[in-house]
What we know:
- The protein is an all-alpha fold.
- It is built from twelve helices and no strands.
- The chain has one domain (2-214).
- It comes from Streptomyces echinoruber.
Amino acid sequence: MADRLPDWMLHSLSLPRLKRYIRAARGDARAAVRLYWWNIEASAALYGPLHCLEIALRNRLHHRLETAYGRPDWWTGAPLNARGQRLVAEARAKCARRGSRRVTADDVVAELTFGFWVSLLSSASGYDRYFWVPVLHRAFPHYSGRRDALYDGLSSLVLLRNRVMHHEPVHHRDLAADHDKIYRVLGYLDPELAAEARAMDRFPTVYAGKEDALRGNWPPRF
Length: 222
């Protein structure tokens, strides 16, 4: 059924990429096109909440670690594992390549990935003992649950974030659950930010219109 896709779509977006949508649409090329556009629309609607979560998480964790270690480049004295040290070095090198001015701690913080910050909540290399227990639990003033539950939830959101940012399919996920999880964690960090973001959030409307969009009754907007 792929030969029924518009030629421009095959040339610009590529058949290997579109095949995943054709399979999901059970060979119906027209339905695959609608699914492709809805996937972009859903990803665009999730961008704002994910943005708020990633920025809030890194700033809250950075603030706590900066305070605990008494310096903005806290990673120089923190017991990061080999992967963590490598990610910091890569972030610093990337900052250095972008300009001639001195690289600051704020530059490195902004360059470090969402996955790096979430990894600080893991049990790897004693992170639970070195980071969570003495320091990082304070970054979540409205959370009283287990570290591992929080880490598992955030790890799944790292995967969602990466798929959204790299233009991959997300339509197959339980996006309603993902969306709820984003706001749950935002609430642990900062309920006021969570409320502000939710007031601007259009994802519920996009998600509620999925079936209409896939039937061709809802024009794609992103």
